[in-house]
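Risk register update: the risk of archive-format incompatibility is retired. Evidence:
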Amino acid sequence: QVQLVESGGGLVQPGGSLRLSCAASGRTFINNFVGWFRQAPGTEPEFVAGISCSRGSIYYQDSVKGRFTISRDNAKNKVYLQMNNLKPEDTDVYYCAARGSGSSTNYSRLTSYAYWGQGTQVVVSS
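Archived output:
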């Protein structure tokens, strides 16, 4: 059983930065594709970024390209989301999710992720 715990959310002004962390326990991330999603109230989670932990292949939603960076530390069994130049529209609950394999096929499909964290709130406001 994999447990994922996100941290690093908070309140930040527009243009500011935050770094989200996703820590896994129960098994290693090394062979799993891991994604970050975000969700506004009343909507489905949307894909933000994903990383194939074994190969390092990386994918981003178009709206965050150039501002967000996903990375991983296999030794610490963690995945990070560095978020720069934050905008009010980035305000959401952010979730870390892991697949049961390293496949990146259909990486934005919610149902392809077997494990989810509890989420961390990000608020971008002046």
